[in-house]
Design a protein that fits this description.
Layout (H helix, E strand, L loop, with lengths): L7 H8 L8 E5 L3 H5 L10 E6 L3 H11 L4 E7 L3 H11 L5 E2 L2 H5 L6 E4 L6 H10 L3 E5 L6 H13 L4 E4 L6 H12 L5 E9 L22 H5 L9 H5 L10 H18 L7 E7 L12 E7 L4 E7 L4 E9 L2 E6 L2 E6 L16 H14 L14 E5 L6 H15 L7 H20 L3 E4 L4 E3 L1
Helix pairs in contact: 3-4, 6-7, 7-14, 8-11, 11-14
Bound molecules: nicotinamide-adenine-dinucleotide (NAD).
The site of nicotinamide-adenine-dinucleotide has 27 residues, from helix 3 and helix 9.
Amino acid sequence: MRNHWMNRRDFMRAGAGVAAAGAAKFSFLTPAFLAAAPRPAAPSDRIRFASIGTGVRGCDIMRAALSCPNVEIVAVCDLYDGRLIAGQETAGKQLPTTKHFDAILERKDVDAVIVATPDHWHRPLVEEACAAGKDVYCEKPMSHTVEAGFAMVEAMQKHNRIVQVGSQARSSIVYAKAHEIYTSGALGQVTAIEASLDRNDASGAWVYPIPPDASPETIDWERFLGNAPKRPFDLKRFFRWRCYRDYGEGLPGDLFVHLLTGMFTVTGINQPPARAASMGGLFRWTEDRDAADLVWTLFEYPDFRVSLRCNLNNESPGVTRVFGTKGTLEIKNDVLTFTPQDTRPQPESYSILGWPKKLRDEYLQQWRAEHPLPEPGKFSVDVESQVFKAPDDYDYTVDHFQNFFDSVRTRKPSVEDAVFGNHTAIACHMANYSLDHHAMATWDAGSKSIKG
Ligand SMILES: NC(=O)c1ccc[n+]([C@@H]2O[C@H](COP(=O)([O-])OP(=O)(O)OC[C@H]3O[C@@H](n4cnc5c(N)ncnc54)[C@H](O)[C@@H]3O)[C@@H](O)[C@H]2O)c1
């Protein structure tokens, strides 16, 4: 790397020592899952769980949960016949199925439940499961409203249950390594963080195909509505619920929450932002929805500011960048790159262009005298990038479930409990508040509410 303050001779002398600069040192990360479950679990440690909501995510995470040792699925619950079948197929066995979650919560042989329903159902299910003495893995975003989030924290604490929120970056070895680098001080002072996640197709924009057998006979529509406004039967609302704010929180609840969980994990913070300011809009997927297809929000946290963007009108890889005075951290999928910046002292080169040549030369001469170059061959500077990657078959959702089941067994608080889930969700609600009200959203800790 050549610096503008070096003349050609200096550069040649230093060259040998910085040959590696700009190159990257590559390491594979070791999966935590292996470390988390080194011992064969005793039969008494066996955890029996049921899945409530066996749609796309419910089936996906059932597979992740079942790949953990000494756990067993004993029932599935969903509101659509096709999903009950999909749940059974995923479990790989004939399980009791029901459209009534109460039938699961009243079973004495169920230790834990997975809640993978649309977001407006998270609060009632977590509250009722905790009251029934079950531990809960609840999909992200934890809450549909600010009020719901605090009620869920209270349910966890009052009934002394393990509640883990399903934003799996929290258990990722990639984010754990990023946290290690962050806390080592190698980044210097961090004042800015940015993250984005963009998609450019119908599925990415939640316009999913509707199964041909879906009908009022195969779906319990009234129960789906739950505490949401009453409406006539509507297949789009049932299968594409993310498009409607009655059931989801748009891009903030669907995708910001992952970026926030990652950012919390890297930096170690766990609190609502002081303020949030959003811009966005519905530009392209206008056919039938009230959720924006572009949301861009700036958040204020005490030591740094965070910019998040999700855009359903262009594809680009999910990325988080942490900017410090000594370097930059970048997480792109499962690859973490730390790039130190060259912070060695340098003579001023820009503003002295306006000095008379004589003064300029004297200044540079004096600067060089005060900062002599090291001997040839002894010059080395650590400006090499470091790249860390998870193994190709690494699945952080499996690690997240392993952490959940460890908490269920040991009663150690979850790595992503309801307090953490509430704090990331509040940031999502603030992003939406700002978008909806065309105003800055301010967090009022005293009243536990968002003010304009
Ligand atoms: N962590 C992640 O990466 C991730 C990824 C996708 C989805 N999610 C979350 O998972 C949840 C589910 O999303 P999805 O994509 O699977 O949605 P989905 O529509 O595919 O499935 C949701 C299922 O919940 C069922 N359901 C609704 N209310 C119910 C109730 N009261 N009792 C029982 N079943 C009920 C529906 O019948 C439906 O089959 C959402 O909260 C979503 O944000 C998380």
